[in-house]
Amino acid sequence: MAEQSTVNFIEEWQTGAFLIVLSVVVGALSVIGLGSVLPSSPIVILGVFLVGTIAAFLGLSFIIYGR
Questions:
Q1: Of the candidates 49, 45, 34, which has an alpha carbon nearest to the alpha carbon of residue 57?
Q2: Global pTM?
Q3: Which domain holds residue 46?
Q4: How many domains does the chain have?
C-alpha cells in the first residue's frame, strides 16, 4: 500500500513539473513569436511572457486534469 502511494506521489510530481516547464516554454515562445510585432520594452516583454505562461498553465492543466 505504501509503495502505491509513493508511486502516485512521484507520478503527480512529474506531471506537475512537466506542466510548469511546458508552460514556461510556451511563455518564452510567445515572446519570441510576438517579438517582431510588439515594442521591445522590458515591461511589454515580461507581460507577454507572464500572460503566455499563465494561459499555457491554465490550458494544459485543464487538458491534463479536466477541471
A1: 49
A2: 0.79
A3: 2-65
A4: 1
Contacts of 54 (CB under 8 A, 6+ apart): 23, 27
Per-residue pLDDT of 55-67, as tens digits, reads 999 999 999 888 6
| Rounded CA separation 12/65 (Å) | 11
Whole-number mean pLDDT of the chain?
89
H, E, C per residue of the chain:
CHHHHHHHHHHHHHHHHHHHHHHHHHHHHHHHHHCCCCCCCHHHHHHHHHHHHHHHHHHHHHHHHCC
CA 25 → CA 15, 19, 39, 47, 52, distances in Å? 15, 10, 21, 15, 9
- Over the Cα atoms of the chain, what is R_g? 16
